[in-house]
Amino acid sequence: MPRIELLVVQPTPFCNIDCRYCYLPDRNSKTVVARETLSNLFSQVFASGWVGECLSVVWHAGEPMVVPIAFYRDAFEMIDRLRPANLTVTHSFQTNGTLIDEAWCTFFADQHVNLGVSIDGPPQFHDRNRLTRSGKGTFDRTIAGIRLLRQREVPFHVISVLSAASMAAPQEMFDFYVKEGIDQVCFNVEESEGDHVSRSFAEIGVEAAYYRFLREFWRLSAAAPGKISFIREIEHAIQQVIRPADAPFTNQLVEPFAITSVDWAGNISTFSPELLGLKNPAYDDFLLGNINRDTLVDLPLRPNFARMLADIRAGVEMCRERCEYFSVCGGGEPVNKLAENGSFASTETTYCRLTKMRATDLVLDALERAPPGGSCREAVSGAEVRG
Amino acid sequence: MSLRQKYRRILSGIVPAGAAGVSLLLGTVAPSTAADHPAGLQPSAAGRAGVSERLAAIREAVSEVAEAEGEATHPSERDLHLAWGNWWNNWGWGRPGWGWPNWNNWRNWNNWNNWWRNW
Predict the structure, then answer these.
(1) ipTM value of the model?
(2) Which end of chain A is more exposed for a tag (fewer CB within 10 A), N or C?
(3) Whether B47 contacts chain A with CB within 8 A
(4) What count of other Cβ atoms lies within 10 Å of the Cβ of residue A16?
(5) Residues 77-96 of B with CB under 8 A from A
(6) Buried b (16+ CB within 10 A) or exposed e, A124-158
């Protein structure tokens, strides 16, 4: 039986800005998901038997904050009414931060929303790609939102898309986060997904540049304890490398319905959330059904699901057989395999090399250099170790 | 000395620092600028074990260190999960609903908040 762990809901495909690297195809459309669609969705999800004790709902795949707060208050109340008593539902937003105001801060705090803000570093990096439709930079508006979150003590993290320029400037990036009081950071590298072909991925030396960036950022953070408390790429790599031999591990991206994605119209897909909205005749555009017309638990019977699953599993088996890093990855990211290799039934991608291999190398290399038996701890005995 | 023994010696010094401590401690010894070419790009270049072999040895060592830590903390408790003690708990491996199978590894969103609270 599938187990839904993450439900990605598109409240609207619209985005109020127009980033150069955006892969969302319908970001000019101002349609909004109907209340009835949300009711059908959550009623079916909760009745499916596919949910455990916790469900994460991410409002994403468009700018969620272009939809009014009243919409979310109503939606959250409805979801709470439909929710089984023993199920915990957490809501998360990934936003460009340009629309954050006092009312949103109050909403986030009241509803305990997990908040991610997209900012690519200081303006010389951010404003290269994160633009308005008229081509102006959005840094000033995003940082104003972040400052308001800090002022109102609303917890958040940031996701920064790294370019060749910012990858070459770990000190500048570190200084920026520290100056702005941003202490939880995640890094993405501009990827090839859907119709978007990454310039960064094509650049020679991107892997070494990424490795150097992570290494230097990690060293800067460790040298100044308490400034940057969470670097996603490092923490994930440590978790994946330093774990007990029998600790279970799965890759949600290749598990059917572990991540379930629903667009504003009620169309459903699974595996990589980015697949929803992409065109592909071989897989019927990755659409398994519509929550307003179809029954969720019947979707695994769809022929296009069977084709997707067979090809994704073939790709996972190829990874298992060929890749030294399989145990930290679990079979890669389907949307990147398709975009970079032309097939789910394939193995290594630039995405793998960056996000899994080089980060793992960094942790392995650090372990190789760690002195045995505790002298590593003594080396930083003057530092505050939070644990 | 076997790989597992080597890693056990290293990990016994850092695992007690907890999840956040491990990141800080390893960050202080991360490779310097001389190491521009990640080891994983040349797994056998200097007679070094391959990545998968090292990963397997590390995990065996983690299990041993965690079990030893747990036995020291709970000498009467024989259950392995409890024996992993603070290390297990700090990283959320022992909590229902969290830990590896439920870890959200979609890169554009992470349950960082829950992860963070587990530390």
Answers:
(1) 0.86
(2) N
(3) no
(4) 16
(5) 84, 90-91, 93, 96
(6) ebbbbbbbeeeeebbbebbbebbebbeeeebbbbb
